[in-house]
Write a structure and sequence with these properties.
By secondary structure, this protein is an alpha+beta fold. The protein has eleven helices and nine strands. It folds into two domains: about 90 residues; about 230 residues, Bira Bifunctional Protein, Domain 2 (BirA Bifunctional Protein, domain 2, 2-Layer Sandwich), CATH 3.30.930.10.
Length: about 350
Amino acid sequence: MKERLEALRTEALQELQQVESPQQLNDLRIKYLGKKGALTEILRGMGALSAEERPVIGQVGNDVRAAIEEVIETKQSAFQAAETANRLLAETIDITLPGKQLPTGAVHSLNKVTQEIEDIFIGLGYTVAEGPEVETDYFNFEALNLPKDHPARDMQDSFYITDEILMRTQTSPVQIRTMKAMNGKPVKVICPGKVYRRDDDDATHSFQFNQIEGLVVGPNIRMSDLKGTLLEFVQLMFGKQAQIRLRPSFFPFTEPSAEVDVTCAQCGGSGCKMCKQTGWLEILGCGMVHPRVLEMGGYDPNEVSGFAFGMGVERIALLKYGIDDIRHFYTNDLRFLSQFVRM
């Protein structure tokens, strides 16, 4: 039996040296070491051996198994290494090839301007307040000193859903809601959002546009505070060279009221076609909060005062970027929008 085992070892090692694939290697492993393999068949005859021969033959059988397993493991490792190398070669990326150019997105110009305005006023100590776009007549008009028979309502042709519900025409209702929520405490907020008016779309008007209003209420708030705030905003938005001027105007919810002009960004105030040779461009409206509005918001106008201002985001963007038609913001022309990727 010892000679048969030695012969089996020689035969198996010779065949293993000729293996060229993992499948062949597995077949030979089964042939020699499997449950019905050649080595198992020989060792089954150990029962007929004497007690002295069994340990000797058993040791030889273990040596033969170990020799065959060692060669199989070596071959298996070699096949695995070769497979890994081939896979790495097949999956290699040629870094010398040019990469695929993916289109670069950008924040929409109106969102960009809105964020910039918010950042400026947050830096000045303001908080951001928001409110519903579908508003009640009370908050949109009456609480802002515009009763139902007030002629100034004609200034804002509105989208009414019912007699008492409409799409808000301004973000001023957020100011009233904020004042009521503050229960007489000081207020310092800006109110950004979409507003809706029955306007025909043209180069300077739209039935939907974005507005940002500001409100400050507290003791000893003066018109000079309003002017200083707006000057600081304008210079942060358009540059330190920018100046403002206030012109008397009328708004039902402020008294006194003013229109604010900024020096023309194109000519620096010397006069050009953009500013119609005046050197100034209208930018926003403002004023001291009307005592009646303070009362509607839950404040005593004898103890506190306040100022408010409102601006159209599209108007600011037109001036900041030198755009001549508001409709560019809404037509989704990639030639227009892609200009703001670099800004």
